[in-house]
Write a structure and sequence with these properties.
Tyrosyl-Transfer RNA Synthetase, 49% helix, Rossmann fold, 8 strands, single chain, mainly alpha, three-stranded parallel sheet, 2 domains
Length: 382
């Protein structure tokens, strides 16, 4: 059922689709400036160039959002788990991508490192194919409304909901120093998602619970104050849910087991050659599904070659050293073009900053009607 949604801002209306009585945002469109406020009080959005073409053809689009932390060089896990899938959404969604520097404060206290990491993360996205004219691309801190929303959501979030979050417990178990920001991370993540009325949030398997927390918070807010937020869905690809690091754990900067995207050739080769493998002899069958090396290799090698190597694993004949050397060469060639583009971008940081400022302006235009509605709902508008 498609309906006109209530709530928010004069001059706009929002089509939603109700599935199992839960509102799913489809798209926004502009009403005439004289439209009565009783009909159009709702959150608003500015369509991106890619989505505008689809809307002109009558095609409805999901709003897809995800972010990445600027805490160190981006790695293959970031690329496969988030960056490549997100870039592919440009032609089939309203795509929102942002650098989550507020989240990074939970673990980074070096201001210069965070500042540089923010620019580098932006350059990485742009070099790998993100087109700022076909999406909304910004830095989290450039839209301060997200912090305001996070506090409001904190005030309705049960402690037990956060105490059950596995990610916090896992980080503490790994020796990461606990702080309130790390504990309350899921609430800020919920604010990131809900502020832009997002439909779909592609995440890694380890973040699935945080999407469930976001949904719980949104549903509680809607039940307490009236329908305000779209209830988002998480998207997890089973194929790339967890990318192994060189030690076999999930590839993560926290575990110091990453293979960075833009390494120099010598360092790249050294890291790939260090991928942990078992001691099964070359001529013996091996299980490719449990091999860290193969789980990275299969994402970058040509598919016919992947099939051939898989056969060698199953039948015997897979030599880890040979496959590692091949993988290092494949990765070096795979990222050759982006590596050159990134170098050009980093030589002109003002260009990156301007792209991010423009994106932040788009993002704030979309965030403001939502935060205005929230302020009215909770009673801090007087």
């Amino acid at each position: 059922m498609v309906r006109l949604c209530g709530g928010g801002c004069q001059g706009y209306f929002l089509f939603t689709l109700k599935v199992d009585r839960v509102p799913k945002l489809v798209h926004f469109t502009r009403l005439g400036s004289n439209a009565p406020v009783s009909q159009v009080r709702c959150a608003t959005a500015v369509a991106t160039a890619g989505s505008a073409a689809c809307l002109a053809k009558g095609v409805t689009l999901l709003r897809v959002l995800s972010g990445i932390q600027p805490t160190g060089s981006l790695h293959l896990g970031n690329y496969l788990g988030m960056m490549r899938p997100m870039i592919s959404y440009m032609d089939r969604s309203e795509l929102f991508v942002f650098v989550v520097n507020f989240h990074a404060l939970t673990s980074v206290t070096d201001s210069e490192k965070l500042s540089r990491g923010t620019l580098e993360a932006a350059a990485d996205f742009l070099a790998l194919g993100l087109d700022p004219d076909r999406c909304v691309f910004w830095v989290q801190s450039d839209v301060p409304e997200v912090v305001e929303l996070a506090w409001i959501l904190t005030c309705i979030t049960p402690m037990g909901l956060l105490e059950r979050c596995h990610s916090y417990k896992d980080k503490i178990a790994k020796g990461i120093s606990p702080n309130h920001g790390l504990f309350a991370y899921p609430v800020l993540m919920a604010a990131d998602i809900l502020l832009y009325q997002s439909n779909l949030v592609p995440v890694g398997k380890d973040q699935k619970q945080h999407i469930e927390v976001t949904r719980d918070i949104a549903i509680k807010f809607n039940n307490t104050y009236g329908e305000t937020f779209v209830i988002p869905e998480g998207e997890i690809s089973d194929e790339i849910a967890t990318i192994p690091g060189v030690d076999g754990q999930k590839m993560s900067k926290s575990y110091d087991n990453t293979i960075e995207i833009f390494l120099d050739e010598k360092t790249l080769r050294k890291k790939v050659m260090g991928i942990m493998t078992d001691s099964v002899p070359v001529d013996q069958p091996k299980n490719p599904e449990t091999c860290n090396l193969f789980q990275i290799y299969r994402h970058f090698a040509p598919q016919d070659r992947v099939a051939e190597v898989r056969r060698l694993y199953l039948e015997g004949g897979a030599a880890y050293g040979t496959i590692k050397k091949e993988l290092a060469a494949i990765l070096w060639d795979y990222f050759r073009g982006p590596r050159e583009k990134r170098e050009t971008l980093m030589n002109d940081p003002e260009q990156i900053k301007q792209i991010l400022r423009t994106g932040a302006e788009k993002a704030r235009n979309i965030a403001k009607p939502t935060i205005e509605l929230v302020r009215e709902r909770v009673g801090i508008r007087y």
